Amino acid sequence: MVYSGGQKLAWGYGLAAEPWSENATNNVAEYMGLIRGLEWLAQRAPGGEVAIRGDSLLVIRQVSKKYAVKAERLRPLHRRAQELLSNFPNARVEWVPREKNREADELSVRAYLEVLRDARQRERARPYLASERLRRLLEALGLQVPAYLSEMGARRLLKRARRRR
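Above: the chain sequence. Below: its structure as tokens.
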């Protein structure tokens, strides 16, 4: 999403990689979102003042050159992000907690659910979805369980629920 003066100028969502492939990671998705935003800005406001905010600490620290890029799959994405950032010499890069980045999170869920509308994709996703046992446990805790909750998402919900007790 691109904002100026509190007004949303552009937004988008989509797939960052082939679903369920080894490149379909949250970090690849974070980099692709950053790259698309920077490409949009480079066409419309090169050299402008830019504040980049993201909830992926890894990506933010790599782009800020505080962390090395060790994952081979991220190297070309990092190079592209750095190339685009060179259009904005005064860019600020800031990490924000996921809870304060709900709009971006909602867009990623939207893209995920669109993919799962296809029966073949739902079948491919099956190994990554929460087990019935885990779903029942979450429901027993009084939590609403989305239809296509991932195993990782379910474990995250369970961890939060246990912390609250």
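The chain has seven helices and four strands.
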